[in-house]
């Protein structure tokens, strides 16, 4: 049995980020699915493992090393970026030794957090979650958030004219953090916003076709 366990709801973006990071770094682990709709993450035995009741993912290696990823976006991003530093894999190294380059990676993680994620999350709510629950999307909200996302993607298009990936010449956490939202958005009419921008479209195709991410998608689809 794997020494590490990852607890989470496979369809949640936080869990998907953690899964992608662990698979990218070829870390051996056991995935333990949680049903958030029943509040399973707030019950035993998960509650004993968790430092905070609001946690929806817990990565446990030993009593000396615990990584807790919460619903809070900031904490999720800090932890999946941290995994890149803890589990350095020479074959899929996502770390730049040069401080300036690693600083660029951190900057674009922040951009995703503060500028890409807010409209992306609202669009996912309107175009994915609402229809699943038999509710119509709010067209005014969709139009407003599409405009915000389009503005962010314009910045991305310019950025990607100078580098293949968001953090430079290789895949890093700055790219990985976008994957869960892309998974949902590319299955909605919002997909056109990405396709209309050549560099962004190429970047999306490159990061979503990675073998580790394909495994995550299989897990989500199977559920």
TrEMBL record:
EC identifiers of the protein: 2.5.1.18
CDD domains: GST_C_Phi (cd03187)
Record key words, sorted: Transferase
Entry-linked PROSITE patterns: GST_CTER
Domain GST C-terminal as annotated: residue spans: 98-223
InterPro entries on file: Glutathione-S-Trfase_C-like, Glutathione-S-Trfase_C_sf, Glutathione_S-Trfase_N, GST_C, GST_Phi_C
GO molecular function: glutathione binding; glutathione transferase activity
One GO CC annotation: cytoplasm
GO biological process: glutathione metabolic process; toxin catabolic process
Family per record: Belongs to the GST superfamily. Phi family.
Protein name (database record): glutathione transferase
Organism: Rhododendron williamsianum
Organism ancestry: Eukaryota, Viridiplantae, Streptophyta, Embryophyta, Tracheophyta
């Amino acid at each position: 049995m794997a020494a590490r366990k990852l607890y989470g709801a496979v369809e949640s973006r936080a869990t998907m980020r953690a899964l992608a990071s662990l698979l990218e770094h070829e870390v051996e682990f056991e995935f333990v699915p949680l049903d958030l709709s029943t509040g399973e993450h707030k019950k035993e035995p998960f509650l004993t493992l968790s430092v905070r009741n609001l946690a929806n993912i817990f990565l446990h290696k030993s009593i000396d090393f615990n990584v807790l990823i919460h619903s809070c976006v900031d904490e999720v991003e800090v932890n999946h970026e941290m995994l890149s530093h803890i589990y350095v894999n020479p074959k899929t190294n996502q770390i730049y030794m040069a401080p300036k380059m690693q600083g660029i990676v951190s900057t674009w993680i922040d951009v995703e957090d503060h500028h890409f994620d807010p409209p992306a999350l609202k669009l996912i709510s309107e175009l994915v979650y609402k229809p699943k629950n038999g509710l119509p999307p709010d067209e005014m909200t969709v139009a407003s958030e599409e405009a915000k996302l389009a503005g962010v993607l314009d910045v991305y298009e310019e950025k990607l004219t100078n580098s293949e990936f968001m953090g430079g010449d290789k895949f890093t956490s700055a790219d990985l953090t976008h994957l869960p939202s892309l998974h949902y958005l590319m299955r909605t009419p919002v997909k056109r916003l990405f396709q209309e921008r050549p560099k962004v479209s190429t970047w999306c195709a490159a990061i979503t076709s990675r073998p580790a991410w394909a495994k995550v998608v299989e897990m989500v689809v199977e559920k």
